[in-house]
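User: Sorry, what's this?
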Amino acid sequence: MKKRNKLSIIALIALFSFVQTGCEDMFEPAIENHKETSDLYNMPAWAAGLLGHVYISNPLGSWSFTDVATDDAVSNNPNNGYRLMATGSWRATNNPMDRWQYMRASWQYLNTFISIADDVNWAADPLVAEMFRDRLKGDAFGMRALFMYHLLLHHAGPINGQMYGIPIVLEPENLNSDFNLPRNTFQECIDRLFADVDSALRLLPDDYGAIEDENLVPEKYRSKGVSAGQYTRVFGDNAKNRMSARIARAVRAQASLLAASPAYASGSNVTWADAANSMAIVLNGLGSNPVAELDPQGNRWYANNAAIRDLPAGVNPKEILWRGNKESNVNLEVDNYPPTLFGNGRINPTQNLVDAFPMVNGYPITDPASNYNPNNPYANRDPRLALYIIYNGSQAGPANAAITTAADGADNNALNRTETSTRTGYYMKKLLNQTVNANPNSQTPGHRYKPFIRYTEIFLGYAEAANEAWGPTGTGTHGYSAYDVIKAIRQRAGIGVNGDDPYLESVKNDKDKMRELIHNERRLELCFEGFRFWDLRRWKKELTEPAKGMSISAGNFTVLPQVEGRAYQNYMYYGPIPYGEVNKFSNLIQNDGW
């Protein structure tokens, strides 16, 4: 008997604007959740539901706080998966980083959608139908590239020293498919990602939005007679913050940086120059002088409650390349405010991270020219320290309440006082909306969104790759260097005295010192946004640096040398393939060491 390919579809009809079929027709006969692929040819909203499922599974869609698995943070929750992982429980059978199943399931939805898209009757108007087909196929190719990138982050690794990725499957799987497939090489996976990005670029606009001027219709459609109204129906405001050509280029840039990095370079032909050029293509979309377009408020993108509240649907601030929908809640604050602000204080920044913030004059605190005073450690520091971290004496919350984290403090904010107190002497401030009242008896929510890709990330990626390719002041074929980018980022942060940044000037001709500065700026600018875990690994930097803290008693400052150890092994620069999958499929080989 022939086995039939069934699809379980989450049809997010509200996300899509297909007007060919009226609602009363769409649900006749009675709704069923199982459809043949052929059923979808005349059900465009159901077909588009395949993409809806993929967006639900977007790996960028939620906060993960993998910083807890690094030297940047610990958690006061003893059951936190990243805490357990970092302290010795990471196994192929116990992996809080596992993304294999759900991302490969979304990959199946994408393959199915791509296979049927040309045959779906997207609209009665043939020109509109063609544009819907282009847009949605481009969307699917771009999302498949995104999922490949994140699958490589989580699961790529060496087998007998050669770098491998995932099994590349480009056709929809069914009950007759061969699931016992070997993994493709890392290079083959990168090539596939680049090919999908190229397909997305051929089909997608840089940006979405309504147009009224017929001359703004792209030539490939205008030559066929497409009007501004028809174009707007497909590529208008309703599609904002969906995968676009601009976003697809950024995904390629991220993957290029990964592939050029020390942990993966042996399995890739992607060079640092390739990565820098890919980053530059994204940045050049900002204007002729991208560095001048760095958002002056970009390091505070989360902080202005009113601005976020008033942000029109689908519109991105200057700092944001791609983001999630706006929300209004108290979730992050309840999790991470100090106890006296009715929070659980879950994410505790480490002394390691605090020490990474330079002095306001730009010098690292270890440099004699910094004038750092260990008996007054928070004075004259990089302004980002106070912006991102609550330390002893900081103000926080809607009433700007003083927070005492000292060990001899009088309330539950004190070091190790209760299960919701800080373990390091610090609380996280970044990401939190300080207008939020988390008191359960009178909660006042705040407005926020989750950034998927920030331009600051792309600037820092360019600086890293350009420094490796051409040195600190080299520009390749572009008009700006790693030095130019880091100077602009540090100036925005408020580093320097009277406009001078003597430490930056002292390293501008030294690639190695500039590398360390770029790595540190990335650590600071992107802290608590889920980058440190991946950066340490792709750089092949030390993984076992203990998480440190600060104890203050009677006004005396004592560094706690080990609040929490880190129990990583060298093979853990790469994550495992799930044990259950390797156990089921003989051709699916595990990464070395696992």
In short: Residues 127 and 292 are 40 Å apart (CA to CA). The longest helix spans residues 126-155. Residues 1-31 have pLDDT under 50 and may be disordered. The first strand starts at residue 6 and ends at 8.
